[in-house]
Amino acid sequence: MREELSDIVVIKRDGKRVKFDSTKIAVAIKKGFDAVDSEYTLSDINKVFHDVIDVIKDGNFDKIKIEQIQDIIEEIMNQNGYMDIAKAYAEYREKRAQSRELFFDEKKKHKFLKALENIGLDSKNGTADEYDFDSINNRLIEYGEIVSEKFATAYIMKKKFSELHENGDIYIKNIKYYPFGTTENCQINLEKLFQNGFSTKRCSMRAPQSIVSYSMLALVAITNNQRDQFGEQSIPAFDYYMAPGVLKTFKKEFKQTIYDILDYTDFDKFIALNGIEREIEKITSIDFDISIFYKFTRESEQLKRMFRIVYEKAMKKTNKQVYQSMEGFVHDLNSICSECLTTINIGTDTSAEGRIISYNLLRTISEGLGENRRAVSPKVVFKVKKGINLEKNDINYDLFSQACEVVKVADNISFSFLDSDINTENYKIGDFNTEVAYFENGTRIIDNFVDEDRRISSGRGVIASTVLNLPRIALRCDGSFENFMDELEKKLDILKDQLIESYEIQSNKKVKSFPFLMKEHVWIDSERFEDENMKIKKALKHGLLQISFTGLNEALIVLNGKSHAESTKSQELGMEIVRFIANKSNEYVNKYNLNFVVSGNENDEISQSFVEIDRVLFGKIKNVTDKDRYTNSFEVDKAVDIKKKVEVESEYHNLTNGGHKVSVYSDDVQKTVDLMYRNNIGYGVIKYKN
Predict the structure, then answer these.
(1) Are 225 and 522 in contact (CB under 8 A)?
(2) Are residues 68 and 176 in the same domain?
(3) In this structure, are 169 and 251 located in the same domain?
(4) Mean pLDDT for the stretch of residues 278-287
(5) Number of helices and strands in the chain (H, E)
(6) CA 612/CA 619 separation, integer angstroms
C-alpha cells in the first residue's frame, strides 16, 4: 500500500505540500466512528479505510487536495450505509470550516476551538449529567487537559513529535502537562521532611513527635507533592522513615505510665524521677533490657516489678497507637487522597520500631476498609533480601511470610528483589538510601549517571516518559528484521529528541511553579535554590528520562512467526532488540549527560490505543492485532506457564534499568517469590488464584 501511494503529494489548505500518509486517514476514520454512539465493529472501520485507499489508488493521483480526501471518506461512508457517521463527519467538517474562517485560517488558532467543540458536543448530547457536581468538575478538568494538550501540540512541541503521538507510533505520557513542565513522579524522602517540619500553601507543620503525627504528616506530604506532579507518588523506605515516630511514642507512653503509677502510690518518695527521665531520653530502641532502670530502685523488688509493668503497658499502648495510625493512614489514602496512587516500599528495616510499622501496615491492608471493601491504596512493594527476610532464620522472615499471606486477600502487594544483579550494583550494606525503590507499575529508581555519588532513590523520579510502539515498526517493515532495526534506530533518535525537548521545557520552569516539590526540597538538590524565581534545571537533571516500549511479544510474532515464549530464535531476537535499545540509551547518556533509562511500558490503555490504530491500518492479524491490547513491555502472554514466563522475562530485567515487571497468577505465593528470586527477577507481581 505504501509503495503505491508514497509518490502522491497532498496539498493542504494553506497550500503546503506533504507526502501522502495513510495513517492520518486511518486515524480520522477511526475518530469518526468513535464519535458516534453506535454498535460498529472493527471490520466496519477497516472496510471504510480500505475502500478509501482503493479509490485514491484507482484515481492515479499525482496530487490530491485534503478536501478531496475528505470528500472521498464521506462518500464511502454513505455508500456503505454508515449514514450517521457520514452526517457527523460532514457536520464536523463544516464546523472546522467555520473555525478556520473565524480565526483567519491560521491553523494553530483553531485547534483550541476544535478541542472544546468535542467536549461541548458531548455535554450537549447528554453524556454529562448537568446536576452532577463531580461530573461538572470532571468536565472542567477535561476542558483544561484538552486545551493544554492542544496548546502544547500547536505552539510548544515540534510537529514531528505531535504527529507521531497522534498517529500511534509513540505515546508521550506528559503531553497534557507539556506547557506546565510538570514531572511525573517522585520517591519522597519523609525523613528529610520530618527533620525540621515543612510548609504547605495554608500552614506550617512542625517536626512530628509521635507516630500519630508522623502518619498524618506523611499523608500531607504525599497529597501536596501529588499536586506538583501528574503521576504516582512513592515512599522508598517507609519502615525506616516512620520508625523514629514509634520510638518517640514509646518514650512518651513509658514516661506517662510511670507518672500514672506514681499518682496512686508513694513510690515517688523512693526514686529519683529526674534521673529516670534522663534515662528514658537515652533510649535508642524500644527493644532494650529493662534492668537499666534497676539502678533507680534501691534494690526494691516492688520497684523492679513496677518498671517491668511500665514497659509492658507502654509497649501495649505504643502498639495500639501504631496500628491506629497505620489504619488511619490507609483509610485516608482511600478517601481524602483517593485520586493519588501511592506506593510504599518496606521490608528491610530490622529494628523493633521498623518491624512494628511494617507489621501493622500489612495488617491494616489485609483487614481492608470495612464492609468487605479492599484498600486500593497504598500499593506495597516488599523488598526481598537474603539475610534479612527471605529465609526462615532471617529476622524479618515473619514479615515476608505476612506479606505473602496478604497477597491472598488483597492486590496491593508486590515484591522487589534487592539481590538481583541489576539491584546490587549500587547497594551498600547498612545504607537503606542505596536500596532500589520501585513504583507499583515497575518503574525503577536508583541509577544516577549524572552524579554517581547520588545513586539513591529518595528525592528522585521520572521527569518524562515516552512509549514506543514496537509492533507498528515490525508491521511497517513487513517482517524484515534488518529493516526493523534500521527503523527502530530512527525512532529511538526521534524519541530521544522529544524527551530532551520536554526536559528543556521543564528545566526552564521556576522553583515557585512547584511549591512543594521544589520549595520544600522534596526533590534532590533543590536546597541549592535560594530564590523562588530560580530555574530548576540544576536539580531536575537528577531525574530520569524514560525510553519505554511495548508489544515486544507481537513484534516478534511479526518478525519470526512466534513469540519469545514459543521460540528460542524469537527470544534471541527479542534480547537483541532490547539490548539495542539499552545501548542506544547509554549512548544518549554519554552524549548528553542526562539520565536516559529504558523501561517496559505497563500501561494497558497505551497498549490498547496502539493496537486499535494498527488494526485499522493493517487489518486483523492473528496473534498480533486481533486482541484488545498489545502485550505490555517485554512480557509474554499471561497464558504461558508460570515457570516458563518467569524464565523468559527474567532475561530482560538487566537490560531495563528504568523499570520492569513480571506478573503471574499463582496459588502458592512463597514458592513463586522463590522462583522469581532464583531467576534474577528485579520486580514481580503475584496475583493469587484459589
Answers:
(1) yes
(2) no
(3) no
(4) 96
(5) 24, 18
(6) 10
Q: Is the pTM above the cut of 0.70?
A: yes
Q: What is the largest CA-CA distance in the chain?
A: 109
Per residue in 185-243, pLDDT (tens digit) is: 999 999 999 999 999 988 899 999 999 999 999 999 999 999 999 999 999 999 999 99
Same domain? 161 vs 115: no
User: Are the C-beta atoms of residues 184 and 225 closer than 8 Å to each other?
Assistant: no
163 with 47, same domain?
no
Please state, in angstroms and rounded to a whole number, the distance separating the CA atoms of residues 177 and 157.
12
Are the CB atoms for 233 and 185 separated by under 8 Å? yes
Closest CA to 396 of 212, 240, 191, 234: 240
Question: Can the peptide bond before residue 378 be classed as cis, meaning omega within 30 degrees of 0?
Answer: yes
Q: State the Cα–Cα distance between residues 289 and 295, nearest whole angstrom.
A: 13
pLDDT in tens, 21-30: 888 888 888 8
Return all residues near 176 (Cβ < 8 A) that are at least 6 apart.
145, 148, 149, 152, 230
**Do 600 and 472 share a structural domain?**
yes
Higher pLDDT, 173 or 121: 173
Closest CA to 172 of 662, 574, 501, 552: 501
Alpha helices, DSSP H only, in 18-65? 22-34, 42-58
165 shares a domain with 46:
no
Q: Are residues 181 and 116 in the same domain?
A: no
What domain range is 548 assigned to?
156-185+448-658
Average pLDDT over residues 377-402: 98
Pair 378, 342: CB distance under 8 Å: yes
How far apart, in whole angstroms, are the C-alpha atoms of residue 557 and residue 287?
A: 58
The domain boundary residue, chosen from 106, 126, 146 = 126
Q: Looking at the 3D structure of the chain, how many domains does it have?
A: 3
Residue 634 is assigned to a structural domain of this protein: yes
Give the Cα separation of 311 and 279 in Å (integer): 14
Cα separation, 594 vs 588, whole angstroms:
8
Taking the C-alpha atoms of residue 388 and residue 394, their distance in angstroms, rounded to an integer, is: 5
658 and 446 Cβ atoms separated by less than 8 Å: no
Yes or no: say if 517 and 229 are a contact pair by the CB < 8 Å rule.
Answer: yes
